[in-house]
From TrEMBL:
HAMAP family per the UniProt record, alphabetical: UreD
UniProt organism field: Streptomyces glomeratus
Predominant place of localization: cytoplasm
Keyword tags: Chaperone, Cytoplasm, Nickel insertion
Name of the featured protein: Urease accessory protein UreD
Transmembrane stretches, start-end: none
Gene giving rise to this polypeptide: ureD
Record Pfam families: UreD
Localization in the cell: Cytoplasm
Subunit structure: UreD, UreF and UreG form a complex that acts as a GTP-hydrolysis-dependent molecular chaperone, activating the urease apoprotein by helping to assemble the nickel containing metallocenter of UreC. The UreE protein probably delivers the nickel.
Record's function text: Required for maturation of urease via the functional incorporation of the urease nickel metallocenter.
Family per similarity comment: Belongs to the UreD family.
Amino acid sequence: MDRVKSRVDGVTTGVRATARIVARDDGRGGTSLPVLAGEGPLALRRTRATGDEARVMLVGAMSGPLGGDHLTVEADVGGGALLHVGSAAATLALPGQAKGEARYDVRLEVAAGGELRWLPEQLISARGSELYVSSRIDLARGARLVYREEQVLGRAGEEPGRLTSRLTVRLAGRPLLDQETACGPGAPGGWDGPAVLAGHRALGQLLVVRPEFTEFPAGARMLGERAALTPLAGPAVLVTAVAPDALRLRRVLDEALAAVL
């Protein structure tokens, strides 16, 4: 599919596109999707699921995000609904004809009694790209969340682009987590040093929010040599990890998820 660009005052700008998912309890022990709509490079497909969950795949209908693009994915999970969101392939940030930084926004909301499993494939920052990722999650008290974020700096044998990522999570209207990382050319010094990535090219985190952590909190501990589990000031745990490559990062986060759940 060809990329459709807009022009402002004779200047080519990037693609603007939004994908939106709304999940609701269908009243019959399952989850319905009254809204499942994508645009441009963001295509959504419902896939086969088991039990009471709805499963959605995010499919890249064209290349992106490229320079100047602004892509947004939104998911709204109601009480009693269970939504699992994945992606068909890794997201590849590339330089584009349009000037400027690309943006990728993720906006997630989960009501009390709802559950969201956000488990997309990796985001790869290719050489020459500039991408700002903003993820904002709003959870009601009693909501459940499994959120995975994986970033790979450069393709095989390639230097990375500039990648900045901010994750903001609020629980019952109060801050649960707010952090930002920046890597690649132009990022603050030290991002590749021993106190941050120490030469690794894959970094990721796993956030799990479950009401039962209030009664049975997890203890802080190391998970192997390159990952750590940290309980948050709320019914949540955060696993952070670095690895030499995407395959080993996924293995660490999968093992961490199994241990947490």
